[in-house]
Amino acid sequence: MRFRHLLLAVLVAFSAGITYAIVKIGVAHFPPVLFGAVRYMLVGVCLAAWWWVPEGRRRPVIGIAVSMTAQYILMFSSLSKSGDASSMALVHQLYVAFATIIAAVVYREAVGARRWIGMAVSFSGVIVIGFEPNVFHHLDAFFLAIAAAFAGGLCVVQARRTAGISVLSRQFWVCLYGVLPMFLLTMATEEGQIDALLNPTWPAVLSVVFAGLFGAVLAQAGRYYLVQRYPVSMVAPLMLLTPVFAVLGGVVLLGDVITWRLLLGGILVISGLGVIVLVPAGRVAASTTVGESVPGGQTTTNDKREI
Questions:
Q1: Burial zone of 161 (CB within 10 Å; 0-12 exposed, 13-18 middle, 19+ buried)
Q2: Residue range 62-118, pLDDT digits in tens
Q3: What is the rounded (10 degree) CA torsion for 163, 238, 295, 23?
Q4: How many CA atoms lie within 13 A of 255 on its CB side?
Q5: What values do phi and psi take at 24, rounded to 5?
Q6: pTM above 0.70, yes or no
Q7: Contact of 47 with 168, CB cutoff 8 Å
Q8: C-alpha distances in angstroms, 4 versus 9, 219, 224, 226?
Q9: Could you give the CA distance from residue 158 to residue 99 in angstroms, rounded to a whole number?
């Protein structure tokens, strides 16, 4: 990989990872669903030039818009209720394991022993994190993050049906389909929206901008650019930096405390992800999906990999 592309990969992982802490700053001011709706508006406006998709290809985007919007609502709500961002970011990485399970059920993909072990290791890491006192006292946030991970895994699988649509066009239509339901939901279930919109703080405004432009657009476009030029087996290991940057972002921006349970659970989660996504040299693969599912955005790319 060329050095400038290596730097881009690190920047993509950084943008996706730090978005968790950035979103937590935002939902401290905006109600979480309202935050998602405003972010959708911003991303949609920025991507309006990519409105065109091939004829007959918009229908599959509706399905992914539903699951992706559900993921954002659940994850933003989790971050608004949690005691920290680092633990929720690590729990959300279960989307990789959920995507593997859903693909096995929906597409009848064979899941080898190596990947089952990886999933078991990741789930065990999440269990360890669940017993962290700061997490245990916010179990509603913990289970919302797990639900968000499941929705994220569903997004990864559904993205296969959007082949032939550019990642930016898909994101534009997801925002277009999802923004109205988000606004209706925030009006029905949340309070303080008018005050939050009329009296925003600079950190809250910047969090929306960063989550939209960097966490979504840059992370998606950058990852898509890389996987079009390099094997996924080369890009995927660099994307494992995402949860690392998520934890570092929580520590630096929010003052999250790294306890031994969070450290052990994080190591198990990331190690399990590595077992799932890294491909042994020389092994032929069945079709699976490698991607990213974060509060800022999501990119998925099909590749032939060993499972």
A1: middle
A2: 888 899 999 999 999 999 999 899 999 999 999 988 988 888 888 887 778 888 898
A3: -150
A4: 1
A5: -60, -35
A6: yes
A7: yes
A8: 9, 16, 15, 11
A9: 10
